[in-house]
Amino acid sequence: MDGRGISSLLSSINYGGVVGFTPTLKGGILSSQKDSQMAEEKARVDFNAPKSLVDRADSVIEILDISRTRLLIDALEDELDELAADEEFRRRLSDAYYDGRVGYDTVDAVLGREEALRMKLLRESIDRTPAEPHLDDSLPSGEVLYDGEVLE
Fold it and tell me: Rounded distance, CA 75 to CA 96, Å?
């Protein structure tokens, strides 16, 4: 499969024939990242895709000897990783976070804990108002303040 295969597969999934998948563990040992993902709660997802795209995907899964589910999960992971590295997407996500349209959990899920904490700290510093000085007494006169006569 060429470098754009999984990404083009994912990006061209819009409308057409129905493809359904439920993430499942398909034999063998997966990487620790995939193991932890497979241990997560699963969700059934059904969506429409062009039949020609489904046929392409089915050809690839035969060659790679993987399930359609694994191919789609890998494609989603690749696309989300690319988005997380894309500066324009990161700017849009940070704008949404600073505007309050998305929460900390969303940033954490998309960009990871370290970046989410950095954005949270920055947002908290933006939200802070500078302390206003408070005087218990009135301001001293110019003569007192400057130790003598004040020139006008």
Answer: 25
